[in-house]
């Protein structure tokens, strides 16, 4: 696995989905939650604790940044360049796993 070799560097499904949500543009917490639930057809639901704990960790890591708007209660988050790099590394790692599974005929070649 070339993209990430340290198991501690693996993103949780929630963290990856949050980064994917922010790749679509700035969002506030509820917007992230709603986007993730819609995109995953409800298979991943983010409770407030999970969502904001992940956001806090990713802010500390420099993967996302906050921006306060006119309403101080409505904080928006955006993906940083480091966050985009980290998200891409995780997606490449997952793609390698899928490629391996397909090479062993554990998955079909297409999603149809």
Structure summary:
The protein has 112 residues and is mostly helical. It has one domain (11-103): Arc Repressor Mutant, subunit A (Orthogonal Bundle).
Description:
With 112 residues, the protein is mainly alpha-helical. It has one domain (11-103): Orthogonal Bundle (Arc Repressor Mutant, subunit A). Helices cover 53% and strands 11% of the residues. The protein has four helices and three strands. It has a three-stranded antiparallel β-sheet with strand order 1-3-2. Strand 2 (64-68) and strand 3 form a beta hairpin. The longest helix has 23 residues, at 81-103.
Net shape? elongated
What is the overall pLDDT average?
89
Number of helices: 4
The gyration radius over C-alpha positions equals 16 Å
Top-tier CATH class: Mainly Alpha
Question: What is the CATH topology descriptor?
Answer: Arc Repressor Mutant, subunit A
Query: How many beta-strand elements?
Result: 3
Return the string of H and E elements.
HEHHEEH
The proportion of residues forming helix, as a percent range, comes to: 40-55%
> In terms of quaternary structure, what is this?
single chain
Low confidence ranges: 1-5
Roughly what fraction of the amino acids lie in strands? Answer: 5-15%
CATH superfamily: Winged helix-like DNA-binding domain superfamily/Winged helix DNA-binding domain
The end-to-end span amounts to 27 Å
- The secondary structure category is mainly alpha
Biggest beta-sheet profile: 3 strands, antiparallel
- Count of individual domains: 1
Instruction: Output the strand order for the largest sheet.
Output: 1-3-2
What CATH architecture do you see? Orthogonal Bundle
């Amino acid at each position: 696995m070339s993209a990430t070799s340290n198991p501690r560097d693996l993103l949780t499904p929630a963290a990856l989905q949050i980064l994917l949500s922010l790749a679509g543009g700035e969002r506030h917490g509820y917007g992230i939650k709603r986007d993730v639930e819609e995109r995953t057809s409800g298979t991943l639901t983010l409770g407030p604790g999970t969502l904001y704990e992940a956001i806090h960790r990713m802010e500390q890591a420099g993967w996302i940044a906050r921006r306060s708007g006119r309403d101080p209660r409505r904080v928006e988050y955006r993906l940083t360049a480091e966050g985009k790099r980290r998200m891409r590394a995780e997606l490449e790692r997952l793609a390698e796993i899928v490629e391996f599974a397909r090479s062993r005929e554990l998955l079909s070649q297409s999603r149809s």
